[in-house]
Structure formats: structure tokens, C-alpha cells
Amino acid sequence: MTVAYGLRIRAHLARSDFHLDVDLELPPKGITVLFGPSGSGKTSLLRCVAGLERPSNGLIRLGQELWQDESRDVFVPPWERDLGYVSQEASLFGHLDVQKNVDYGLKRSGKPGSAKARSGAIELLGIGHLMHRHPANLSGGERQRVAIARALATQPRLLLLDEPLAALDLARRHEILPWLEKMRDELSMPMLYITHSADELARLADYLVVLDKGSVKAYGAAQDVLASVESPVIVGEDTGIVLRGTVVGRDALWHLSQVAFPGGYLWVRDNDMAQGRQVRLRILARDISISTHEPQDTSIQNHLMGSIQAIVDDVHLSQALVRIRCGDSILLARVTKRAISMLDLKTGDEVWAQVKSVAVIA
Amino acid sequence: MNFPLNKDAWDAICLTLELAACTTVILLVLATPLAWWLAQTQSKWRAPISALATLPLVLPPSVLGFYLLVAMGPHGPLGQLTQALGWGVLSFTFTGLLIGSVIFSLPFAVQPMQNAFEAIGKRPMEVAFTLGAGPIDAFFSVALPLARPGLLTAAILSFSHTVGEFGVVLMIGGNIPDKTRVVSTQIYGHVEAMEYAQAHWLAAGMLVFSFSVLLALSLLRKRIGQVLP
Asked: pTM here?
């Protein structure tokens, strides 16, 4: 009998400034985002998975393949681990042009179908026209795309991405994010993705691991972790939830699309989305307000009824986060504590959530 | 006036170039792993080994030459070893001279390479590892090509420093025509014999050679700097 294992990571690493101490079992596909402030051990964790660090008492296993097990004295060196690694700073080899950079790993992987994987990676990242350029003559965004394509071309079983967008400006980030989303949707390989951007987190994460000072604070499906009450500590001002829904209708006159999600319907901007398309919606907690009866005479178009599950302190003393269950979904609303007192909101109350703004993120 | 470069002078020039070329080749082979080790290691031996490899830079050539002469002589440890191996005594031979030159120019090969390897940092090697290259593969396909400017500097400095050495040559090699007499000792001989005209020609040649080497080196660095980021 075979069991579909994911990625098992158990690692203890003692450094002068912090201790990494994690024990995780991650799903075998999709993007798992490692989130946390700098110095929380995200990069160290990724380096342990890659074999660039050797954690004591470590156990690293991908599927049935054992990469490290100190109890059995197994340690597979990084060059024999079937993975791709893309780091934050430019990691292209300066003495090779783009083509030779892409072929570097490919030549050493020795896998069947490598020509197809190579052209697939080049096409997926849109770097075909750059093949004869040198890294020095590429923009930051192009360099990162080449680095990602180089890792993909080896058809790794696991892709590790360490803040691949951190060194880029906002415009370049928006240039690469769609490629990453495309990779998530078209490739079946699991990815571990480090970021401390709430935006990237919301757009990319299927699964979320929150690290702080070397230990795991929360992990699970991204939707669940984001909607949990710990999230204000996690993402600060950009606290919000992500919903998955389906485009079900359109109001052509007013350029709006209707999206159904487990819990109701939302009107969003019409971006020429076909009926039936799956979308991710991101709603920031600060864009939801609460009313105790159905709002009338308001400009806000999206009203959802739900019940209050919890009220917790937010990052600022004046504010609270209200967790509202709405059908099978959870909404988070950021309101002032004075409003909670005036409206006498309590756990279990039926309320209306007014959604001021919804972002379609994929 | 005689033709300025007679047969003796040509012999000395050829021997000098031969010695410098052999020294450079041997140094590149020996100093590359040493420089790599010094750039990478965190061993407690790093400091003493590094000091030892730099010693020829500050030691008077006559001191180095004296110890080498004693070691290579018939009663020295090296001399007894070479005699036991049937190679005879190496002092006052070209091989002896070559060994002395290699040791004397060692810091000029190690330091530029070590700097180059240190400037590359750990990352390119780690990237190569994650792309499936083992340590030796990664060294030859990534570290060495990236350190090319340092390698070039090391080669040029070793070569020209060997051409310019005097003290060690005199101590180990003596001044035997066609065997161990190089340009620098030839000039010394001319001056001792009051043959200033010949000394002038050779000295001027050395001056032009040394200047050209340094000029070429700085131009080359500029060009490499433009090609490599």
C-alpha cells in the first residue's frame, strides 16, 4: 500500500541569534508560503531542505525519498537532491550567457524529456529572446525569470523560492507575479515560497507556515490561517482574508461581475472574466464594516449576513478584529473598540458585513 | 662597439624566460588549491599556513636562498633525499633554481587568487550544488572561471617576479653560464667586470619588460572588468 507523503521537515539548528526548531508535514503539491519577519528562520529552513545546512537531529523527506535522517546517519548532499532553488539576489553565473545558465543544471540532471522541459521553462517564463545575452545586460526582473527557468528546466521534484521578488521594485514584481501564478496553476510540483509581503502571500499561498523566532506559530491551508485570529500579528496592517469563488454572472451595463463563494455572492470589477472561471478574492479587514441590520441607502454594493465568531485585539489599541462566519466562509472586519461598545457586539450576534472593496487577485 | 646582445646575453635571456615560464606553470597548479583552501577554510591552521605562504614576501631573498641552499646541499635534508632518490644534489642546478623560484614567488600567485576566490563568495558554489554539480565539478565550471581575473593576475605577477629575482638565484644557482645564469645575475656580472654598455642594454630591457607587463596588466583588468560584472 502506498501513501501519498508530502514534504516532511524536522530540523533543529542553533545559531547565536536564534534557534530554529520546526517539525512540519507539508502537502505534496501547491505553493506553501513560509511567512514571518526577517530573522525568523525562513531562509535557514529552506537551506536545511536544500541540504546547504545540516541540522542536528534532522529529518527531511520528500515523498518516499529520504534526504536526511540523522538517526540513521543519512545525509544526501545538495547536488544529489532533486530540487530547484531560486534565491533573492541574482544567482546567475556571470561568466555564462542566459542559454548556458539555463543549460547548466539541465546537463547535470540527466533526465529524459529534458529538451521538452527546457523549451517549456523558456516559454513559461518568456525568456526566449534573451538566450544570448549576458546576465550583466539583463534587468533585475529578467534575471529572476532566467533563474527560475534555470531551476525549472531540471524538472525538480521540489522548487524552493527564497523571496524571489524581494530585490525588485514594485513594477518588476508585478511583471513576475503572473509568471509565478502560471507556474502554480500549470505545474504539479510542490513549491516552498518565502516572502514577507502580504500581497504575495495572498496571491500565491495554498498553504501557509508562519514562522517567528525559529519556531512555527501557525500552519495550515492559507485561507484558514489567514482567517484565524492570530492573523493581525502575522500580517499587520494588511490583515485580510482570501476567498475562492466562481464567476457566475455579469452586469454589462455597470461593468461588474458576480462571484459566488461558499457563503454568498460578491460584485467585483468586471475584468472580462469568463463565466465559470475560478478566481481568488482578497478582502482586507479594514475594508469591511459592520452593521446590526441590513444596510439601506448606502453606496456599498456588497452586503453579507453572518454571525460573529470572535472579537480579538488588533495591532493598535483602539481597534479590534471581528471574525464573522458567513456560510462556509470566514470574514475578518477591522473596527474600533468604541464601535463594538456602541453597537454592543458580542460573540454569536447576527450582523451584516459591508464590503467596501474586493480585489480579484487571480 | 660590439653587437650589444652577444651569445651569453641571449643564453641568459632564454634561461630567464624558461625559468619564469616553468615557475608560473608550477605555481598555478600548486597555488590554486592552496588559495582555494585559504579562501574557504575555517580551520585553525588557516592563519599559520597563510603566514607561511606570505613569508617569502617579507623575507630577504638572501635568507630564503641561504636556507634553501643548506637544505638542498649534500648534507641538508632535501639534498639527502634527492641523493637517495638518485637525482643528485639540486643546488647549483636549474631544478634547484626552479624550486627556489617557486617558493620565492608563491605569495604573488596565492594572494591574487585567494582574493578572487574570496570575492566570489559562497553563493555561486551553492547555486551550482543545487543545480546538480558536485564540489569538483562546481569548482572547475563555476569558481575557476569566475576567478579568471585573479588567475591572470597571479600568472603575470609570478612570471614577472621570477624574471626580476636576484638574491635567491645567486644563492642557490650561483652564476653558471648557460645553466643558472639569468639576466639579473648577468647584469651583476657585467657591472662587476665594469662592462657598463652590456649592463645598460640588459637593464634597459628589463625596465621596458617590467613596465610593459604592469601596463598590460592594468589594461587587461579594465577590459575584464567590463566583461564580467
From this structure: 0.80
What residues of chain B, 98 to 157, have a C-beta less than 8 Å from chain A? 123-124, 126-135, 137-138, 141-142, 145-146, 148
Nearest Cα to Cα of residue B160 among B208, B225, B201: B208
Partner A contacted by B86 (CB < 8 A): no
CATH 3.30.300.350 fits A7-230, yes or no: no
- Domain covering A240-360: architecture: Beta Barrel (2.40)
* Contact status, residue A95 vs residue B144, Cβ threshold 8 Å: no
Q: Superfamily assignment of B7-227 in CATH? A: MetI-like (1.10.3720.10)
* CB-CB neighbours of A272 under 10 Å: 7
* Residue A80 burial class via C-beta count within 10 angstroms: exposed 0-12, middle 13-18, buried 19 and up: exposed
Domain residue spans in chain B? 7-227
Instruction: Name residue, grid cell 534526504.
Output: A67
Under DSSP, is residue A135 helix (H, G, I), strand (E, B) or coil? helix
Provide the residue ranges of all domains of chain A, joining segments of one domain with +: 7-230, 240-360
How would you write the pLDDT of chain B (229 residues) with one tens digit per residue?
455 667 888 888 888 999 999 999 999 999 999 999 999 998 999 999 999 999 998 999 889 989 999 999 888 898 888 888 888 888 888 888 999 999 999 999 999 999 999 999 899 999 999 999 999 999 999 999 999 889 988 999 999 999 888 888 888 887 787 788 888 888 888 898 888 988 898 899 889 988 998 888 888 777 765 444 3
Please give the helix or strand (H or E) that residue A178 lies within, else none: helix A170-186
The chain A residue lying nearest B134, using CA atoms, is: A79
Instruction: Name the residue facing B127 among A51, A81, A91 (closest C-beta).
Output: A91
* Two domains, one topology: A7-230 and A240-360: no
* Whole-complex ipTM: 0.79
